[in-house]
Structure formats: C-alpha cells, structure tokens
Amino acid sequence: MELMWRSSHVSGGNAHYVEALYEQYLVDPNEVPDEWRNYFDQLPRPEGSPSYDTPLSPIRDQFYQLARNRRTAQGTAAVDSGENKKQVKVLQLINAYRFRGHQKADIDPLDLRKPVPVPDLDLSFHQLSKADMDSEFQTGSFFLGKDKAPLKEIVEALEQTYCRSIGCEFMHIVDTEEKRWLQQRFESVRSKPKYGNEVRKHVLERLTAAEGLESYLASKYPGTKRFGLEGGESFIPMMDEVIQRAGGYGTKEVVIGMAHRGRLNLLVNILGKSPSELIDEFDGKKVITKGSGDVKYHQGFSSNVMTPGGEVHLALAFNPSHLEIVAPVVEGSVRARQDRRDDTDGDKVLPINVHGDAAFAGQGVVMETFQMSQTRAYKTGGTLHVVINNQVGFTTSHPQDTRSTEYCTDIAKMVQAPIFHVNGDDPDAVLHAAQVAIDYRQQFHKDVVIDLVCYRRRGHNEADEPSGTQPMMYQKIKSHKSSRELYAARLVEEGVLSEDDAKALVEQYREDLLAGNHVANALVKQPNTELFVDWNPYLGHEWSGDFDTSFDMKRMQQLATRMCEIPDGVQVQRQVAKIYEDRRKMQAGGMALNWGFAETLAYATLLDEGHPIRITGQDSGRGTFSHRHAVVHNQKDGTTYVPLEHIREGQPRFTIRDSYLSEEAVLAFEYGYATTMPNALIVWEAQFGDFFNGAQVVVDQFISSGESKWGRLCGLTMLLPHGYEGQGPEHSSARLERFLQLCAEHNMQVCVPTTPAQIFHLLRRQVIRPLRKPLVIMSPKSLLRHKEATSTLEELANGRFQMVLEDQGKLDASKVKRVVLCAGKVYYDLAAYRAENEREDTAVLRVEQLYPFPKDELFEAIKDYTNLEQVVWCQEEPLNQGAWYQSQHHMRVVADMFKEGLGRELKFAGRPASAAPAAGYMSVHVEQQRQLVEDAFNA
After folding, report:
1. CATH code: domain of residue 332
2. Domain boundary residue among 494, 523, 552?
3. Mean pLDDT of the chain
4. Burial letters 779-788, b for 16+ CB under 10 A, else e
5. pLDDT attached to residue 809
6. Its catalytic activity (predicted)?
7. According to a count of CB atoms within 10 Å of the terminal CB, is the N or C end of the chain lower?
8. Is the peptide bond before 912 cis (omega within 30 degrees of 0)?
9. For position 26, what pLDDT does the model report?
10. Exposure of 634 by Cβ count < 10 A (0-12 exposed, 13-18 middle, 19+ buried)?
C-alpha cells in the first residue's frame, strides 16, 4: 500500500489538483473518473481526528479538513468551479490517450490498417473545445516536465507519445508501480528519444546487413525457400540492441526460439554463422550426419558475443515446422541454465521467443507458455516476446480470418504483459521499444511483448506469388521502399551521413559476404568455454542395455532412514503417516518393499551420488495414485516438507513440483530442460498415461526425432501410468503403440517395469549410464500396491535392470511346451491363472524393455525349454494397439533362433481390435480380461 501511495497521483507536487478533485468528489462522486472515485472511496471517513503514518499525511489531513468544512446542502453553492471541472476533463483526456492512443498510432508501414474511430481521444468527448487550447491546466501525473501547460501543448505531447510510431498497451497492468514506470519511460521522451549520430549509423549498418543478406540470396538462389526477412529488416538492429543491452545488465546467456521467418538472417547477422556455411547448405552439399538432418531454416546454432557487460553466450534453439512449440522448449532450456547458475531471479539468462503474428494468435501453446511464466516450477524471470507481424497469416489468410481479437498480441494481456506495437519502418522507434522492453524485463522480471508491425515482400516463401490472394497488399508492397532505403534517406537528409557513406555500407557488406567473412558484430572468435554445457562425457556411446546400477547396502539403508525422517512440528495427515511408517518398516527389513519406497529410494541414491533431480506433473508431489508422497503437507499450517531435499549436506538440487494443467507446454519445457542439463534426472509424469496425447507434437517433433534431425541428445524420462483396471477408454492406455511406432535407430527406450526393484534400477540406469536417450516408462497403477509386486533390499542393492524377467515359478524346463511373453501387470493375472490351474507346461516371461527389443536376452531366457512348441504374446490392449503389431517381428526372430519355423506360429492373446483403447463397462472389462488370460494358455 505504501508503494501505491508513493507512486500515485497524490504525490506532493499534485496536491492542489488532488484537492480540487476531492472537492468535486464530495459534491458528486460520479463527476470524477472511476480510478479517483475508487481511491477516494478508500479514504477514512471525515469523522473524528485522523491518525496516519504514511508520507502523505499532510495531503490527507487537508482532505480531512475539506470534509469537515464542506458546505451543507441548505442553500450553499457547489464547491467546484467550471475551471476545476475542466481540469478533471483534462485528466480524463490524458488517461484516454494512455488507454486508447495505440488505436490511433501510426504503426502500419503499408498504411493498410483501417483507422478505428476513437471518440475518447476527441476534445468534445471530454467537454473540451478549441477555445480551451490556450488555457493552462495541471498536467497531473503526465510527464511533461512542468506542472502546468496549455491544453494545446498537452494534446500535442500526448499525440507524439501515444499516436506515432509506437502504440503502447500497458494500462491493463494492475501494478501501479509498473504502469508509472512505463508512463515515465515513454512520456518523458514522447516515445522518440534523440539518439546520437553514431548510434543511428550503427542502426543503418545493421539494417544494411539484414537487407544485404536477403538481396544476395535472392539473386543467387531465386525462387528457393528461405523464408526471408524482407519487409521486417528492423528485426536485426532490434535483436542486436536487445542482446547488447542485456549484456550490459550482466546477462551471461541468451536463448532464442523462433520459427522460419528471418531465421537465416538472425543466424548470420546476429549469431555469426559463417556465410560460407549457409551457402554450402543452399548448394546442397552433403553434411556428414548419422541421422536424417533437417532443412536449413530449422537449424539451431550457438556462439559468443562481446557486450558492455562482458561475454554473452547466444543459443538459437532448433525448431520444427510446428511454429510456436519451440517457445516452452526455450523456457525449459533457460530454467536449466538458471538453475545451474543458482540464478533464482533470472538475471543471468534471458529467454527471447520470436513469433509470427498468426501463430501467436492461433496456437494454444502460446497461452500455455504465458501461463507458466510466473509459476514456481517454470518461471524464468520474464521472457521477451517479439512478434514479426507480417499482417497476413499464411499466404491467403486475411487478419479477420486469423483471429477474433483486435491485435494478434491480445493473448499476452492474460499475464498483464506490456505490449509495444511498433512501426517496422521507423528503426529509431524500434530501438526505443527494444530498450524499454529489456529494461522492463530486468526491472520487474515479467514477460513483455514487442509487436514489430511489418510486411512480407515475397509472400509466405520465395516460391509463392502472393498477389494472387493478396492483391491490394502487394500492390502497395511493390512500390514501397525498404526500411533501409527509407532510413538511409532520412539520415542523409538530416546530415548524419552522405549518400556515398550509405552506399559504402552496402558495398562493404556484399564484399564480406563474397569473401565468406563473419558479418555479425562483436562476435567472439575464441569464446569462453565456461559458458557452454560440457556434453563430452555423453558423446560417442553405443547402445548398451546392461549397466551396473548396484548400490552399497549400508549406505542405502542410511539414505532410506533419511528419506523417511519428518521433523517435529510437521503434523502429517493420517494416511500419509501410515505410508511413512510402512517405509520405516521396509527400511528395517520388516516389510517387503513396494513401488513408492523403491522409486523414492532411487531418487535418494542418485542425489547422494551428485545427480540433480527434477520431477514435474499434475500430481507429482503425492503421485496421481498416492504412492509417492515425496512432499509432506503440514496439517497445522499448510507448509510443506520434502525429505529428499535433506538427504545430505551439499546435495544437488531436488525439485518436485505439481504442474499447472498443461501437457504440451510442460512436456516441451521439460524436454528443453533435459537437453541442457545432461547430468540430471528429469522426469515428466502424466496424471494418466493417455494425457500425453495432448502433447503429441512434442513427442513427434522433439523427443523421438530430435537426435536424428539435429544431433540433440536428451535424457528426459516420461512416467505414463498404464494398465487396464476397468476405468474406461480414457484412463487405461498410455498408447504404447504410438511410441513403438516412432522407435528406430535406437532413438529412445520404451520400458514396462513390473517390480519395485526394476523401477529402482531403471531410474538409476537412466542417469548413471552415460548414454542420453529419452526413456518412456509405462508405469503402473494397481501394481503400486499389489501384494505380489514387491522386492527386497538385496534386489535393490545388488541387482540391475533386467530387460527380460525369467519365469518365477519352479518349473521343470523339460516339461515346458508353451512360453507366454507379456509386458506389464497382465503378468500377475497370468501367474495367478497358472497357479490356480496347475499349468506346469507353460512358462511366463516378462519383456520389461520393448525397445530397443532385447533379442539376445529373450533368447537366453527361453533356450533351456528344449521341448518348446509354441510362443504366445499376451497383452491387455486390443489387437490393433499395444506392442503386438510393432514388436511381433522381433519375437518371431527370437523364436526362429530357438527353432526354425517356430516364429511363424507365434500366437496372439489379447482383446479384439477396437476403435477405443478399452471397454467402458466393468462387466465387459472383466470378461475380456478373463478371456485373454485363458487364451494365453490355450492358444
């Protein structure tokens, strides 16, 4: 509240004006603006003697005296004069410009934007007229440099500030300090600061670089797709200024995400990619790669540049054609870098996300990314969002077909982000918007948006003929001079440089391109390697499923004790207390180990060995099925205690957070985090396994193919609850078949562990083994508490992850004629059926890792069944789902290895083919489950 008083209009310099407003309020509250009426409504009633302890006491005392002395209604005149009424109207006019001046602003370089009538900006709307233009009025909080000024001067200053090349939207922000700060930054210089000649020459040089690269590529590769920046060249000097200014604040890393438009230009002119490398890509020269590779305008890059605050590392994230999906990936990468630096405020690492106008308005992941911006698990200290606003969606889309909002940026208002719409043909205004944006981000650590309003000179891509669908726009564009031409002419006219100087910049840039020289400013040729993540320990490893994940028994018991300790004063809820009491018994050997104990102990051992851990998901703290309870909620005051944060002194970071209700952005965030933190265990847990399909694009574009396309290693782990429990189609299947369909070239691991020891070793293997591959775990539901799904401390201490679990029964191998292969909880149903029916002729084997398929291990498990006649694959999923279609060829190979022709006889036992993943009726579920188990033994 005190901050509001200090920053409000009632500061000492405005005392007389505020008193006049208050007098008007006392006569008729509806005659004053809403914001003042609400403010006055909160003042103490004028009865008795006031007592205030704020710096505003003298003014408020005057309010009190005014209230005591106000005239009664009997025959007294109103306290305010006509002059005071007009003073109030002037204040309303000033506020109107702040609220709606952007609608009148000159932000469209093509002048195609149809002006919207804004009656609030007319004098008559506020009962003012030209006759008042020479009258002096208090300027209130308007930063005019003086307390009073003629109305003519006030209006002219408002027009310059809010209706020229920058349209500011910030009055939707609730925080008064932020609004006042932004008002001061724009109003004090009329949104047009006076830059020195050297600064403006530098801007022209960067504009020349932006245009020069596009001109060169257009002449050398006409009609070739490059998604050029023509029409939006001001983007390059803007990004140059943002990076330099951020560096001046002490920023050490900048991570950038963007789609195609202008990406090649940014790579060459800002990040310093060698022009000769780009030319080689255009020439189609073969690049040595193990994977598929990707088109040039999807590629990432990194480099270091020098700034006033020292060396800054730049990273451009790899991005597929799914436009906005890279935004949360960038946020995850930034958060990982900040965590590594213990940068809790986000001062050292800056995220910049560059968007297209139609995608910014149309893609739901934009909203999800904004929603994460201030949450504990995902905040990064504010993101600079830049919209390269071409004013046309694809090639044929009209703005009114691409959104329902006035601006493409209106979604940003949901987090009260300030939005600066700026005319791309006014580089000075672009520079000012960039400076204010980065200053705001560093000051308040919140998101901010620059809407760079420009155009596309060549259509959606260089192979298009855009006039076929946008005739009026492209008639304008054909005759419209480029931003560089317009700015150069302006500087020549103002005497900043000569025409020859401007031409020399063009010639010099082209010479540098032809010579293959780096054309980015301030590029560091020998970068400081301490700014990079060292991936060398994780490179060059061939696939190996077997790895030693054992752990010293004595130390493990000590850790088990620590992870069960809850301090005095933390009142634990009854059921949770029982879980912890059981875990203490498990640690002491008094109970068999369940899933929650083994999983949590895996985390404890990894922390003890120095590996950071991060787990997020919609119920990760307790686990969707209440098995984990890694976060204990104090029943007395609602505070939380996390035992795994207190395993040992100096332990690495352990983060476990319940996410907001998102899958797409959250999974993308965790992917970005995992690609930047190779030594950590990064886990995303779906509330139900099928929920991942809300993030299918992340699996398709990044998790399954990122290494093949871009060489990006990633050790992300996905826990996807999976299992048929009669709960209907939506919460049974994690769509195992989709992941197996995407598996190739050892790109990821798909596992279905069925014992606590298996999850213990699987999680440890994921981090301890230097191989970095995504891990997809079909995690259980009913097995979390199944009486048979238990393990021993010895199995945790001395074992390792087994890709195939051999039959647990005491069978005579020579009597076995049938082997049933399965994965997941159906094993326990099969084992129960065999015991009940005394079927000693059938062995049941669990394939715990479905990809990479463990052929050798499976062969070892069946080789002793010398009289084997039949192999059956049993699954709970329908015939057209699950592992059957994607894995049967592996099983046939193993069967044929055992006996030629046996693979052809491989049988299937499972639910019939179905459009839905599972039955919606319990009775149907039970019958199907009974039948598929029986079929496995009688196929």
Report:
1. 3.40.50.970
2. 523
3. 89
4. bbbebbebee
5. 85
6. N(6)-[(R)-lipoyl]-L-lysyl-[protein] + 2-oxoglutarate + H(+) = N(6)-[(R)-S(8)-succinyldihydrolipoyl]-L-lysyl-[protein] + CO2
7. N
8. no
9. 57
10. middle
Residue 305: beta bridge partners? 312, 523
Domain extent, residue 495, equals: 207-285+299-523
Helix (H, G, I), strand (E, B) or coil at 239: helix
Query: pLDDT tens-digit profile of 525-579?
Result: 888 887 788 888 999 888 888 899 999 999 999 999 999 999 999 999 999 999 9
Taking CA 465 as the corner, what is the angle to CA 463 and CA 468, rounded to the nearest 5 degrees? 155
Count of structural domains, the chain: 3
Low-confidence residues in the chain, pLDDT < 70 = 1-17, 19-20, 23-81, 286-298, 394-399, 462
Residues 756 and 832 in one domain: no
Q: What angle do CA 882, 885, 890 make, to 5 degrees?
A: 105
Phi-psi label, residue 495: left if phi above 0, alpha if psi -120 to 50, beta otherwise: left
Q: Are residues 769 and 815 in the same domain?
A: no
Angle at 182 between CA 180 and CA 187, to 5 degrees: 90
Q: Name residue, tokens 């775990």.
A: 777
251 neighbors 347 (Cβ within 8 angstroms): yes
The separation between CA 680 and the C-alpha centre of its own chain, rounded to angstroms, equals 19
Place of tokens 């508490």: 785
**What is the C-alpha to C-alpha distance for residues 561 and 868, in angstroms, rounded to an integer?**
47
What gap in Å lies between CA 2 and CA 5, rounded to an integer? 5
pLDDT for position 44: 43
Read off the CATH number of the domain in which 743 is found.
3.40.50.12470
Residues 768, 823, single domain; the answer is no
d(CA 11, CA 34) in angstroms, rounded, equals: 19
Residue 683: per-residue pLDDT: 98
In the numeric block, which tokens belong to residue 718?
Answer: 């996905």
pLDDT at residue 68, as a whole number: 41
Domain boundary among the residues 778, 798, 818 is at 798
The residues pairing with 304 across neighbouring beta strands, listed in sequence order, are 313
Q: Do 794 and 589 contact (CB within 8 A), yes or no?
A: no
Q: Virtual CA dihedral for 913, 918, 921, 926, nearest 10 degrees?
A: 80
Q: What is the pLDDT of residue 70?
A: 44
Q: Give bridge partners of residue 142 from the DSSP assignment.
A: none
DSSP per-residue string spanning 500-560: HHHHHHHHHHHHHHHHT---STTB-SS--GGGS---GGGSSPPP---------HHHHHHHH
